[in-house]
Amino acid sequence: MVSTCMITKKERRELKIPDTDISCRQDIFQILTVPDTVVKYGYCSDVYVQTSLLDFYSKLDDMETAEKVFNDMPEKNVISWNSILFGFLKAGELCKARGIFDKIPIKDVVSWNSMILGYAKAGDFERANHLFAQMPDRNSASWNSMISGLKEALQLFNEMRKHNVNVQPDEMTFACAISACSQLGDLEFGLWIETYRSKIGVELDDHLATALVDLYAKCGNIEKAYELFHGLKKKDVVAYSALIFGCGINGKAFEAIRLFREMTTAQIRPNSITYSGILTAYNHAGLVEEG
């Protein structure tokens, strides 16, 4: 029986070994014989050995073999799940990573932090924030995952603006950058980005307008947030939640409650951010018992 623990001789030949000194290359080839030894001594069913092997292939960026090893594991622990999750995130395969994340039987803080950071680094702050809100236990690393991803997104946005980078920001770029500013509380830079968007003539689509609703609501400019909200072609849970949360933190409790009732009447399902906003609104209005 051929096990996926083994890497074939053909695969070894096809692996791109970096140009380095001879002794280092010999070390690399010796490492590549480890899977054969695992099979030879019957450790293919050992969860710890298999997890190390899985991590080994992930670090070689060979996710195809890593996935085979993972699928063939008779027993998986949280480290096994996190290893394959991190491997897919490192490879930039967010969809596969999310599929793994959703299947993890018992997620630990590493599972949550890895997935949140993956989304944040990809500029998908909506999903990152949604997961962050769902996270049962947060530590400093959880907050750092969000913050580092958001800061990285803004750094990339600034890189795009340099004259030697021949890439023009589009609606999605601006939406991601403005959303990052909202999450970091850097409202001044967010408003500057909006001015810059208007200056270079990038159109305002629903996705970008929703990011601006969130930004203006958090700035306390509810009037401008409403103006953008009413201009949306399609109002979704993200837009409603942004405005509800903004009304909540700015003491406009009854406006938040009205919006909440409006969205539920429209059969738009609330999410964790919606509930956070409405509860904040109830608190501000002293309506905790009703909430």
Task: Describe, in short, the structure shown.
The protein is an all-alpha fold and 291 residues long. The protein has helices at residues 9-14, 22-31, 34-40, 47-59, 63-72, 78-90, 94-103, 109-121, 125-134, 140-160, 171-184, 187-200, 206-219, 222-230, 237-249, 253-265, 272-285. The longest helix is centred in the middle third of the chain and has 21 residues, at 140-160.
Give an overview of the whole structure.
The chain is mainly α. It has a domain of 81 residues: Tetratricopeptide repeat domain (Serine Threonine Protein Phosphatase 5, Tetratricopeptide repeat), CATH 1.25.40.10. Helix content is 70%, strand content 0%. The protein has 17 helices and no strands. The longest helix has 21 residues. The protein is globular. The N and C termini lie far apart (62 Å).
Order of helix and strand elements from N to C terminus: HHHHHHHHHHHHHHHHH
As an assembly, this protein is single chain
Main sheet makeup: none
In the predicted model, the low-confidence regions spanning at least 5 consecutive residues are 1-34, 36-43
CATH structural fold name of the domain at 204-284: Serine Threonine Protein Phosphatase 5, Tetratricopeptide repeat
Strand content: under 5%
Structural class: mainly alpha
N-to-C span: 62 Å
CATH superfamily placement of the domain at 204-284: Tetratricopeptide repeat domain
- By CATH, the architecture of the domain at 204-284 is named Alpha Horseshoe
- What is Rg? 24 Å
Shape, per Cα inertia axes: globular
What is the top-level CATH class of the domain at 204-284? Mainly Alpha
Which percent bin holds the helix content?
A: over 70%
* Overall strand count: 0
The tally of helices reads 17
Overall pLDDT level = 78
GO molecular function: RNA binding
Pfam family, one: PPR_2
InterPro entries: PPR_At4g14850-like_plant (IPR046960), PPR_rpt (IPR002885), PROP1-like_PPR_dom (IPR033443), TPR-like_helical_dom_sf (IPR011990)
Keywords: Repeat
